[in-house]
Amino acid sequence: MGEPIDILELLQKPATIVAPYLLGALVRHESPEGPVVVRLTEVEAYLGPKDSEDPDPGAHTYRGKTNRNAVMFGPPGHLYVYFTYGMHFCANLVCRPEGLSSGCLMRAGEIVEGLDLARLRRPTAKHDYELARGPATLTKALGFNLEHNGISALGGQVSLTLPSTPERHVRTGPRVGLSGPGGTENYPWRFWIDGDKTVSRFKAAAAPKVRGRAPTTPTTP
For the chain, does the N or the C end have fewer beta carbons within 10 angstroms? Predict the structure, then answer.
């Protein structure tokens, strides 16, 4: 058995390196309603702006730092929580030294503590394995919202514990629902535990709708 992984040292690295080590990790949120703990079974890695050493066209930070994505620029070990589609929250674990940009989207997991509270928060789930099956449902089951944007995930209200040994049955592939180059097979930065039923279903991004007249077939110059 190897030496235990130092999480602070790990989080200095890009998300593409950190992500597989998060599989099997326990994320605990101590809320006023009670604790909920999720064992991560699926994560996605996101890197930096287009002018960085690791440009990622699928990342929120691709076009640079804004008020919305500022937390993604560090310090590492904090949560970047954002609102999407006018109804959902999603949560990322920030990586890399402060000033750089990288993060791991917590995409899916298994509820291992606080099952009754997670069921209360997720009344539409038909099965327990669906309670945190997807980034928005995972965040809802844990009780995260914009109030948690920027807080530490390494102790206190939120804590993350790495598994004693890295997960062995890891698969990778394109990230879910991303249009454009960031969603292609050139970015196989989705990591999941093979065969785990809590992993979300892969869904490619819908092709953008073309407005106006239909494009003509280009001719050879």
Answer: C
